[in-house]
Amino acid sequence: MSSIKYTTKKNRIALVDCNSFYVSCERLFNPKIQKKAVVVLSNNDGCVISRSREAKDLGIKMGEPYFKVKELVKKNKVEVYSSNYALYGDISRRVMKVLKTFSPKVEIYSIDEAFIDLSFIDEKGVEDYGREIRSRVLKWTGIPTSVGIASTKTLSKVANHIAKKEKAGVIYLNTNIDERLKKFQIEDVWGVGKQLSKFYHKNNISNAYDLKNVSNTWVKKGTNVLGAKTAMELRGIPCIDLQIDQEKRKNCCVSRSFGRKVKDLNELEESVITHCLNAAEKIRADDQIAKTITVFIRTSPFDKNRRYYSNSKTIDLAIPTSNSIELIKNAVKALTDIYKYGYAYQKAGIILSGLKDANQNDQNLLTPLLENKSKKLMKAIDYTNTKYGRYAISIAQAGLSKGWKMRREHSSKIDTASFDSLPKIVV
DNA sequence: TCTGGGGTCCTAGGACCC
DNA sequence: TCTGGGGTCCTAGGACCC
User: Fold this and answer.
1) For A15-31, what is each residue's pLDDT tens digit?
2) Closest nucleotide to A160, Cα to C1'
3) Most buried of A55, A203, A292, A396, CB within 10 angstroms?
């Protein structure tokens, strides 16, 4: 296993994970749903993606299609919310800011969780430190969290999982590790998904302890280097480094399911152009340019009565760019190539890839000339849209009707950037 | 009727070169 | 009839994550 780098230094890593994050965000601004069963739905009100403890206890599963639990929801008076990512993103930034007061080394792993290096904290004091993290985040942001602490990222994930399950708040996985791992199902291990679970079960590895005790060569042969890293980490040998500095994204995807089926090429075009505008704006905000653009469309994979069609087309851009007009031109070309008449489309999207810093684009003599021409226009559009709201300036092809737009029937309409939605206190 | 969206990393295999 | 071998680079697709 010489190919896997690891250190033998004694680490302490905490994983802080917000409890039912989206639900907790909605609860912040709505005291009435504090003790109630609450769920938050994915885009298009499609699936349940966040559940309060009470909703979990009712048997509502993560990722379950909303229409399948509608009856249950009605019967038990579950509060239902469409997702509000602007709000969750804002609260997330506040939580992360608090976490950074506890350690110089914080990896923001997702919208609702972060790894924190606590190696500098004494072993005896680390559990108390974890409790302090919980209470400060709760006090300063109102968001409840669970904290798992262990010697590797994978083990801190295990500890966090246990903390949530046992409602313990903080778990420091330091003693009786093997006993804990024996009760930890293999499919719950970080990095073990559906396929790997199947493979491990077939080979009589059914819990984390089993995986910890098989040979590295065997794991690597049967899976890949990531599988072997997971096994090593379960042994307490750190193989997955903390990623402190936020690297810029390498791809940028914007896609949506439609609120209703779409057959018409013009409507598909409108949606693709709208996605294109959003993606271009995103990468410009990071000062990036794209090398290629991919357009994809598909019909519903769940509709058994109709033939499934899914296709995508990637275009290499002659000159990498973040220019909306240029990107749209290529997107429309790609869409026309893959569009087939007669299908009821369910989703469309675009992916900008091969992203790099705009100022690195120097291999082409023409580049500065062409880029400058449009840079000012793009800047003006971005500025206006930030100041006066999304879509203040758009382009005509993006359409105005947008009959294909997604459903959002349960929005709380909370906007933390707007005074209108601040809670009112009546005295 | 109604099933999300946005990422990362790894690997196999093709293209290409000498 | 007989059609090298080894290296690099790139990409599509798969698996995983939240």
Assistant:
1) 999 999 999 999 999 99
2) C18
3) A55
